[in-house]
Specification:
2 copies of one chain form a homodimer.
Chain A lengths: L5 E6 L1 H7 L7 H11 L7 E10 L2 E11 L7 E2 L4 E9 L8 H10 L5 E3 L6 H6 L3 E2 L4 H4 L5 E3 L5 E2 L8 H8 L2
Parallel strand pairs in A: 5-6
Antiparallel strand pairs in A: 1-2, 2-3, 3-5, 4-9, 6-8, 7-8
Chain lengths: 173, 173
């Protein structure tokens, strides 16, 4: 990994073009492009993406966002935490430790982290030291929440489950 | 479609076994299984899933949850709305209109609906009358939000974007 490092990506036309190589290209990237075109953000603004360049090629990236403890329902005590998504390495560069480099970078902020992996990726996240959070319907809906905690942080205690029948009555009215 | 209808699924061992046929089987289903095993929910409790049986086979399903208007950041005026996820038809039964039957059922509650499709499914959701919601980083993070609105409902106006540089400073501290 000599000469290869994780860096915060800047929003400019080159970055947004690089992003098209990634499978998870979607609403987020299109919104960044619009913001740049409409001058809502300046050229070379910092983005929520971090990436790894191999020479001039962006070969891996992830998005990272800090949520306030006011919205923390995952950790105990409630605290600021990072949400990580769109972790992806381009196919030709996989299995060389780049994904781990990005995850380690995210951990270096020393805040708890929450992500929502594809089910098929559970094993990868467990290797990264993440664990499956106790699923809570109201909080998680369609998610498969995985969390990582620095020392001293625990998973939040889940509120007692509401009887699903009660919830049901609310849905059809 | 004679004799085929959408029904609310009951949580029991047969349903939970049927769920294993679906690709999106994951944390939510495992949690339902645990709740049943630990008698936190009764056998045959109502679930957040709706499905279609073909004979004795569960061939399609979706999950539906009603969010209170207190948490509505998608619609104007703010109102109770449905979150739809895990819409899936088993491979052998695709392209016969079952997905549309489920979506039409969700619409029949006459509440706005929000979903988070895979990018590749955008076209399907547009055919279903959904539209891409304006992406908002803080609200949507890794999502690709699509919404459907009954008459009289509009999309929520987005707050002005924060400069990404400001946000940035918050992340690394």
């Amino acid at each position: 990994m000599v000469g290869v490092k994780v860096e915060r990506l800047l929003i400019n036309y080159k970055t947004l073009e690089d992003f098209k190589q990634f499978q998870a290209y979607g609403a987020q990237e299109l919104s960044m492009l619009e913001d740049l075109q409409n001058e809502i953000v300046e050229n070379d603004s910092k983005s929520p993406f971090y990436g790894i360049y191999y020479g001039n090629t962006l070969i891996a990236r992830m998005s990272l966002y800090e949520r306030s403890k006011l919205y923390d329902h995952y950790f105990n005590p409630p605290q600021d935490y990072l949400v990580l998504w769109k972790l992806e390495v381009l196919p030709d560069y996989r299995l060389r430790g780049y994904a781990r480099m990005l995850v380690d970078y995210a951990k270096s902020f020393n805040l708890p982290i929450k992500t929502n992996p594809f089910i098929k990726a559970n094993e990868f996240w467990e290797k990264m030291g993440f664990e499956s959070a106790s699923y809570n319907l109201e909080r998680d809906l369609g998610e498969n929440p995985y969390i990582w905690m620095p020392p001293g942080v625990k998973e939040a205690i889940q509120p007692p489950q509401q009887n699903t029948d009660d919830k049901k009555e609310k849905t059809k009215n």
